[in-house]
Structure formats: C-alpha cells, structure tokens
Write a structure and sequence with these properties.
The relative contact order is 0.13. Mean pLDDT is about 85; it is low at about 150-155. The protein is α+β, with helices and mostly antiparallel strands. Helices cover about 25% and strands about 30% of the residues. The protein folds into two domains: about 10-130, 3-Layer(aba) Sandwich (Aminopeptidase); about 160-330, Aminopeptidase, CATH 3.40.630. The protein is elongated. A hairpin with a 3-residue loop joins strand 3 (about 60-70) and strand 4.
C-alpha cells in the first residue's frame, strides 16, 4: 500500500481569516517573523488593500505554501514566499511564483520585483533559475520604529495594542536536541516557598524589558496565594553562582500544566541557555503526566519567543488582541 503524495490535490486560493495560525506558523518555521515584521499587522494591511493578495497553497486541508503579491500600479512585489520545510524541492516555490505572476498579469502590471539579501544564497539561486535578473538600483531606508518596540500604529498615547498567542502541546517532545550548556557552572533549583521579595526581584529583572506587569498588580497576600500554592512550582537557574533566569509551572487546572512564566535575565541572553532551560521546563511539566502543557506569548515578548515555543512543539490554538494601559506610563513599572 503506497502512501498518498502530500501534493495530491494541491490548490492555490486567497487567504481567509481562519488561515491565520497556519500561515504564521509556516512563516515562523521559515524564520520570516522578526521584530520588525508583526504578522498580524502585515496580514491586516494586505487583506485591506485592493492592490494586494495573500495566496495560500493547500493540500488535503493543510496550508503548505504562501505568497503575498501586490502592486503600486507600475511594479509588482512578492513577499512571504514560504513553503513547508518538509516539502522542499517539490516545485511548490515555482508554483507559487507562477500564481503570483499570473495575478499581476491579470491586472496588467508590467514588472515584478522583490528583495533578497545577498547572504540568502538559496533564494538568490532560486530566482536566478527562474530567469529573474538583478536590478542595479540602490535601496535607501530609514527605520521609523524603535528596534524591538511593539507596533505602535493606531495606539493612543499611553495605550498599547497587544496580541496574545495561546499555545498548546498535547504530547511530549524529545529534549535531547538541547544539550546542557557548556563552559558554565550552572544549577537549576526549585524554590520552596520563595520569599516574595526575591520573586519580585526576579520578575522585574527578567520581565521589565518585555513589559511584564500583571504580577506587579498583586498584593503580597495575592502573590503568595499563587506562587506558594502546592500546585505551582518556581525553578531558578543559577549560572556561576548568580541567578540567571526562572520559570513557573502552574498545575492548578486539572490535566493541564501551564508554563506561566519563563525568561532569562538580560546579561544571560545569547549564551545558549534559552532552549536548554525551556526543554528542562517541559521535561518537568511532562513528568506530571498532564493531558497538555500550555503557554502564551504576546507581541511585547522577545521576538524569538514564539518561534522557540513552536520549535519545541507548541502549536497556536487561539489569538486575541487587546488594548492596555502602558504600565510604564501609569507607574506600574516605575522608572529605574
């Protein structure tokens, strides 16, 4: 008995709102989601434009390719050409480009162009093979947003628009791909009835840059009721004797362990600790034999948070957007 070809019945159609999680998941898997490319904002802009379309390639109900195509009346543009990493060299990219070119030809756009970094040898070779030519023009640019800042377009003064992605893992994934950090003396210890002052110190040190504020709103009694609950565990990572990060496992809901907090202190980011610490947190969570492990992340978090969670096996299940009072403006997060 032969297995069905995953490209059987492959079709290309316009994007629909129900496609959001699958499309962003594909873009994340291909490394296209960065601090300056907020997928919700980009998708909303493309959907609202009369001169643009998001094309999705679908097979057996699964989205395996995308291409954003648009034009300014004279030139056409391609963005977000992405194909399933497991289906490389199957002609998906070529098919999506042909669909994009056809879309532009129907609108009598005479030329299409796109931007590829010189270091992206695979993409440059792909377009050269399709007959694309290098346009000998300089591209001038200036950033109009602060690096790492959440998109502020449409925000009123003192307000932040935050998109929260709720994620779930329903089976244990191997953590062996994330070996222990080398060249550092480290220890991961559970804090039994952690002093509130130490907890607040960790919460501020790890989360200030990413606008963590909810736990700041709790009184000592309210905070103690959470972190000292018998179903809540807080683990602290120490590197060379100093606290370097922490995570919190919340098992108060039957059958679910929620990774309610996770992060590193700024001085320890970029030292190969993040993936290992997350793998350790997931091992401890699955040791409790839950039906699922959950986590949520938002557009205020580190831009690599969402891709890391997805690489470790989490799948987006829900996304919500809300507007909050900027806690840095209200004094909830006081100036240093």
């Amino acid at each position: 008995m032969s297995l069905a070809d995953p490209l059987d019945g492959f079709t290309v159609r316009p994007y629909q709102e129900k496609d959001f999680d699958a499309v962003v998941g594909l873009w994340t898997a291909r490394g296209m989601v960065t601090w300056y490319n907020d997928p919700r904002r980009d998708i909303d802009l493309w959907v609202a434009s009369e001169n643009a379309e998001i094309l999705v390639g679908e097979s057996a109900g699964r989205i395996i390719a995308t291409l954003c195509v648009g034009h300014d009346g004279h030139r056409g543009y391609f963005y977000y050409l992405a194909t399933d990493p497991d289906l490389q060299r199957r002609g998906l990219g070529r098919r999506m480009v042909a669909e994009g070119e056809h879309w532009l030809k129907e609108r009598k756009v005479p030329k299409v162009q796109l931007f590829v970094r010189p270091t992206n040898e695979q993409a440059n070779g792909f377009y050269e093979h399709l007959g694309y030519e290098i346009n000998p023009c300089k591209i001038w640019q200036r950033w109009l947003i602060e690096r790492g800042a959440p998109p502020a377009e449409g925000d009123a003064k003192g307000k932040l628009e935050v998109t929260i992605t709720f994620m779930e893992m329903t089976e244990r994934h191997a953590s062996g791909l994330h070996p222990h950090p080398s060249g550092q003396s480290y220890a991961l210890l559970r804090a039994e009835r952690m002093p509130l002052s130490f907890y607040r110190y960790l919460y501020d040190a790890v989360g200030r840059e990413w606008v963590w504020y909810e736990r700041r709103l709790l009184s000592d009694e309210e905070l103690a009721a959470v972190i000292h609950h018998e179903a809540v565990e807080v683990y602290v990572l120490y590197v060379d004797g100093s606290p370097a990060g922490f995570f919190e496992l919340d098992g108060r809901k039957p059958g679910i362990v929620n990774l309610s907090l996770f992060g590193l202190m700024p001085d320890f980011v970029g030292r190969g600790l993040g993936a290992w610490l997350l793998a350790s947190a997931l091992d401890l969570a699955w040791d409790k034999l839950p039906q699922s492990v959950t986590v949520d992340t938002c557009t205020l978090d580190h831009p690599k948070a969402l891709p890391l969670y997805q690489r470790m096996g989490f799948v987006p299940v829900l996304r919500k957007t809300k507007v909050i009072e900027d806690p840095r403006e209200t004094g909830v997060i006081p100036p240093r």
